[in-house]
Amino acid sequence: MARNTIKNKELSEEVQEAMSDALEEKVEETEDFLKSIFSQKKLSTYLVAKNLPFVAFLALLGLLYISNRHLAENTVRRIDRLGKEVKELSWDYKSLNAELMKLTTQTEIAKRADTLGLKERTEPPIKLQVVKEVKQ
């Protein structure tokens, strides 16, 4: 089913050979590159020892990145938890404030005072004046 075509046009044998040669060259280049990286000369103990501080530095940066991310996520969780707590306390404050306002109205105070046997005054208060006697 696989035909050698590009955009539904048959390829000539010359083009097919050129393409297969180019592909083989790329495969050989990749194999040579991988062999050069993992050869005994390149991966010697000297190179490992020479690059060890850099590898340790990268490991340290990785640990710092992970710990910073962890602290940031914990901070976000704490902020969310405190935000929910603030909303809940705000609701409590508003309900208690409304209840207090209701309880401090004159009619509510009169009802509570009536249970204690106190009566609401219907006449205005009287101003007392002290008369000083002049001594002679």
From TrEMBL:
<feature type="transmembrane region" description="Helical">
    <location>
        <begin position="43"/>
        <end position="66"/>
    </location>
</feature>
<feature type="coiled-coil region">
    <location>
        <begin position="79"/>
        <end position="113"/>
    </location>
</feature>
<protein>
    <recommendedName>
        <fullName>Cell division protein FtsL</fullName>
    </recommendedName>
</protein>
<keyword id="KW-1133">Transmembrane helix</keyword>
<feature type="coiled-coil region">
    <location>
        <begin position="1"/>
        <end position="32"/>
    </location>
</feature>
<keyword id="KW-0472">Membrane</keyword>
<keyword id="KW-0175">Coiled coil</keyword>
<dbReference type="Pfam" id="PF19579">
    <property type="entry name" value="FtsL_2"/>
</dbReference>
<dbReference type="InterPro" id="IPR045755">
    <property type="entry name" value="FtsL-like"/>
</dbReference>
<keyword id="KW-0812">Transmembrane</keyword>
